[in-house]
Amino acid sequence: MQEQALTCKVCDQGTLIKRRMYRLSGPIVLIGYLFLLSSVGAIVVGLLLLFYTGATSSEASESIKQEIRNKLTEADVPPSIVEDVLNRKRVSQDQVTGLSPKQMTAFFNARQSYRGTSVASNLMPLMALIYPAFGSGLLGLLLTMRKKVLLCPSCSAVVNAS
Ligand SMILES: [Zn+2]
Q: In the chain, what are the domain boundaries?
């Protein structure tokens, strides 16, 4: 598109120049930037948290492993099955059907809780942090939105471009 110099319609002297201006007034734009900053901050903290929990998750699951091992041993579950559960290996159908009801209950409970803790406990606080961060980030972007205008240097009249 060919750009052509436009003369100001207000004072008939100045040549309009293109500028980008905030759509909203100063204080609201400031609030918008606060939203943006806090959103970026929360996402950074969230990522740090992810790396931190990622680094310590093997250590944390050691205590969970111990707890599960105790429960299974208490229910007289054979040690080979206990190790398979802890190493996330598939336990064959034959092994499971050979168990007594008490052993089987302990086995299924252990497998369930072991699966649950590993994934959910690491991601839940992260999601709780990052989810609203996206919301406030979006709000920040909306509040700091800019528009193209034409500005007259002589009388400082502002005309909407486009
Ligand atoms: Zn003018």
A: 1-23+145-162, 27-144
